[in-house]
Design brief:
Elements: E1 8-16, E2 25-32, E3 35-43, E4 51-52, E5 58-59, H1 60-78, H2 85-99, E6 116-126, E7 129-137, E8 141-146, E9 149-152, E10 186-192, E11 196-201, H3 203-206, H4 212-224, H5 229-243, E12 248-255, H6 260-279, H7 285-296
């Protein structure tokens, strides 16, 4: 039997600022010649709260997410090679430092110049498979969603927290892009051989929900309400806007489905299962998480 071609079907972003023209998230998505790219970035407002007059009084977090996003955009268009990703980010940070006014000091041991997270997926369709390369730093995440459920692909740079405990604990970020100290860009490569949805998300997408199961329900519940990628994007934004307490950014790539109706049908059974077993259950959410995380954490 001929393998199904897992080409890109749709790609889009859902994003909203809590304070218009002052949000600290950024994003980029693109595709070319069988290669697609998603990136969600979240400027770290606590450690990057210093404001720079040479950047219209914007915070270091605001500047960082946009500058690094610009560097990543240049990387995808000019290079796309794994070994140059870090260097494009460092170049973007050096431009920030070079243009920034030097008045004032960054106060406190946790403060950093131009700090931001990133979660990115570089994907290629390859002989009936998808080669997905995740690149990340911080607590923004890469995910894969298929009819078996939602799967977190990247490990948060937080001390001792998982997706459930992090919703109620204020974990300390152990690694973040910045111009003050050394940082690491993590890499992870996964080959997928079935139709799926790949996503990158800042913590504003999932951090204000009660459980990780609720995030999956938000994703596929909104899919069930739509009849096109455009309608799905609107439904996603409406659902996230109703619960978010921070800027949020979600980038989405749909791969390997014949059309949108096939995509919806593929997730109908899963949508019902999540509603009945997790959203409408009377059991302790922590007990439910113990069962759910077996599939959720499959790729961690």
């Amino acid at each position: 039997m001929k393998k199904k071609n897992l080409e890109l079907n749709a790609i889009f972003a859902v994003a909203e600022e809590m304070k218009k023209n002052d949000g600290e998230d950024s994003y980029y998505y693109d595709s070319k010649e069988g290669h697609f790219f998603l990136a969600s970035l979240d400027g770290c407002g606590g450690s990057g709260s210093k404001r720079y007059m040479n950047f219209s009084g914007k915070t270091g977090a605001y500047i960082a997410s946009r500058a690094v996003c610009g560097g990543i955009k240049a990387w995808f268009r000019e290079s796309g090679e794994e070994n140059t990703f870090y260097h494009y980010i460092k170049k973007a940070l050096s431009v920030c430092e070079g243009y920034a006014d030097k008045t004032g000091r960054i106060m406190g041991s946790l403060a950093k110049a131009f700090p931001t997270t990133v979660a990115a997926i570089s994907g290629k369709s390859n002989q009936g498979k998808i080669d997905a390369h995740c690149l990340w730093a911080g607590d923004s995440r890469c995910y894969m969603l298929d009819p078996n459920g939602l799967h977190q692909l990247t490990q948060d740079d937080l001390d001792g927290e998982d997706a459930m405990s992090n919703l109620t604990s204020d974990g300390v970020m152990t690694n973040v892009i910045n111009a003050t100290s050394e940082f690491e860009i993590h890499h992870k490569k996964i080959t997928l051989d079935h139709p799926c949805i790949l996503l990158t998300a800042t913590d504003g997408c999932f951090g204000y929900l009660k459980t990780p199961m609720a995030f999956e329900n938000l994703l596929i519940g909104s899919l069930m309400e739509a009849s096109s990628p455009f309608e799905w994007r609107i439904a996603l934004n409406e659902r996230m806007s109703a619960v978010a307490g921070d800027d949020y950014t979600l980038c989405v790539a749909v791969c390997g489905f014949k059309d949108f109706e096939e995509l919806r049908k593929a997730f109908m059974q899963r949508s019902t299962f999540v509603l009945e077993n997790y959203m409408n259950s009377q059991y302790d959410p922590n007990l439910l998480w113990g069962n759910y995380k077996l599939e959720y954490s499959k790729y961690l």
